[in-house]
């Protein structure tokens, strides 16, 4: 990922300090005394700048919903708790990218959490509080504290119930920014539930018409085609949510039912997932992007064939042919498409390894796509960490001795993951 220094020299922190290598540092905000607001007031401006400019990229939706975080910032102008949570997230990400200890993030968090608790007990229950809890969940997720993330997501689900978000109907008066938060919370929920845990947010029925109505309020009006791209990515999210639920049932069936009956029922449910997964590729925006990619591949092959000395070089995954992916929206969606397929195959074949062949092929294509996009683009894409994890289960040593190194300075080498 490219590093974006904060445009304020006063935010520099000492980097080389053995204290910051301690593994128990993260709950530091529990050990610090409560600071006054004036301690960090002078440093807010650069972190606000970072929040507005870089948070959309960190969430993986900068090209689709560029205005959401501006709206959240507007709410923070009249809500101190939201302002502190916004600054906690942006300072954590900014200082982490600059390899500084996230001390200010802990200070902001320590000032923000009491205000969230006060609003939860005394009110008001409003959109600003919803945004605050969402940012708290995201901060703990990127900080690696999944248990705290889960608690905040559970609280967020309770707050969203005032909008009666159900699987049957979406109210037309729900603010589009709240809908965005709901969809991002579902993605964070996947990070926890992808093994055998229960999801916090329920299965989502396909109500694409209502979804289109709020999406079109957030996308750039000069690029209406991005509505279809957002719908396509959310469709993959919903497919994964259903796959997680089926995987949970599969675990229970294998534990309690006759093996033959259990495997038949599991394959029957998984077949439906695979059919839906395949139909996703027939969406109009996906079909056109695929045709464009195929044309680019033919042009690249012809260029190399006619002039082997041509300096047009593409990053490739190991010895596999490189991809030319100029459409970044398609590239990130394609990566998600492959790793969701890998996850589905683990429902019927839960053992690590390249079998069945669809899993092996999806892992190869996922890595080729990551190499083509470049790490700075794909690291913020939807579920990239999950994709890398599933790839490690598929191509890890000693099953695939070549490893699964991805070309590029930030992702070179082999993925070594716990396959226990």
Report on this model:
With 420 residues, the protein is mainly α. The chain is built from 15 helices and no strands. Residues 1-40 and 404-420 have low confidence and may be disordered.
Task: Provide key terms for this protein.
420 residues; mainly alpha; 2 domains; 15 helices; disordered N terminus
How much of the sequence is in beta strands?
under 5%
Instruction: Work out the helicity level.
Output: 55-70%
Quaternary state of this entry equals single chain
Mean pLDDT: 79
In the predicted model, the low-confidence regions spanning at least 5 consecutive residues are: 1-40, 404-420
Radius of gyration: 22 Å
From the N-terminal CA to the C-terminal CA, the straight-line distance is 29 Å
Short overview:
This protein has helices at residues 44-59, 68-76, 80-97, 103-122, 127-142, 146-160, 176-193, 208-215, 226-256, 259-280, 284-306, 328-348, 357-373, 375-378, 384-395. The chain is mostly helical. Helix 1 crosses helix 3 (80-97), helix 7 (176-193) runs parallel beside helix 9 and helix 10 runs antiparallel to helix 12.
